Amino acid sequence: ETGVTQSPTHLIKTRGQQVTLRCSSQSGHNTVSWYQQALGQGPQFIFQYYREEENGRGNFPPRFSGLQFPNYSSELNVNALELDDSALYLCASSLLAGNFEQFFGPGTRLTVL
Amino acid sequence: TQLLEQSPQFLSIQEGENLTVYCNSSSVFSSLQWYRQEPGEGPVLLVTVVTGGEVKKLKRLTFQFGDARKDSSLHITAAQPGDTGLYLCAGDRKGAQKLVFGQGTRLTINP
Questions:
Q1: A91: closest CA among A21, A41, A39?
Q2: Chain B residues inside the 8 Å CB shell of A60
Q3: Which of B97, B103, B105 best tests the A interface by mutation, with the highest count of A CBs <10 A?
Q4: In this structure, how many other beta carbons lie within 10 angstroms of the beta carbon of residue B97?
Q5: What pLDDT digit, counting tens, does each position of A15-47 carry?
Q6: What is the DSSP letter of B8?
Q7: Plot region of B69 (φ>0 → left; ψ -120 to 50 → alpha; else → beta)
């Protein structure tokens, strides 16, 4: 059984740029959630995708967008990067939509300069 | 304001001591989950509690869900250096499409 994988591991961008982060869900899981974890904080929910449709969104502006593909892998896109977007971005997959037990990937560390 | 408040935020104790971490809220949750996160890695699920008053044990770790399903605790007996990490509680509220995390408790066990 393959776990959740994310790419890239680390990324450095400058203000105003755009970034795409990628996630492959655990085998058999059809739901993917994205979280932002600032240094020293708990993860904050960005949004969830279930069967290629957005299934819930947290308090993040529209410049945070996502996609889920037929194989249940997912992308997180962030436009017009700001310094405060610097964080660890976590992807989690689960068997069911909603908030059932989630399995996290190792995260992508994004630094915005 | 955090929906889930964890305390303490930092804890440093000696190997062999016992400790308790608390996760409190004014809201009712359908379930509460505890995760452990190590530097450079994603959180790893330790346990899910779903019934008020439920107690679950995982070796030296004991998890309890409050009777009113508003709070939870994690107790570690005879802590070991391998228990060092960030412990996160996360709650699932009925009808909400998101998991809410506490800010975490950073635990350090000194040899």
A1: A21
A2: none
A3: B97
A4: 19
A5: 999 999 999 998 888 899 999 999 889 999 999
A6: -
A7: left
More confident residue, B9 or A102: B9
Top residue of A99, A100, A110 to mutate, by most chain B CBs within 10 Å, is: A99
Which residues is B24 bridged to in the sheet?
Answer: B5, B71
How far separated are the first and last CA of chain B, in Å rounded?
Answer: 35
Provide the token pair at B34.
Answer: 């505890």
What's the CA gap between A35 and A88, in Å, rounded? 8
- Give the separation between CA B99 and CA A97, rounded to whole angstroms: 11
Which pair of structure tokens corresponds to residue B72?
């939870």
Q: How crowded is residue A97: how many other Cβ atoms within 10 Å of its Cβ?
A: 17
Of A26, A28, A76, A84, nearest to A49 by C-alpha is A76
Amino acid in position A12: I
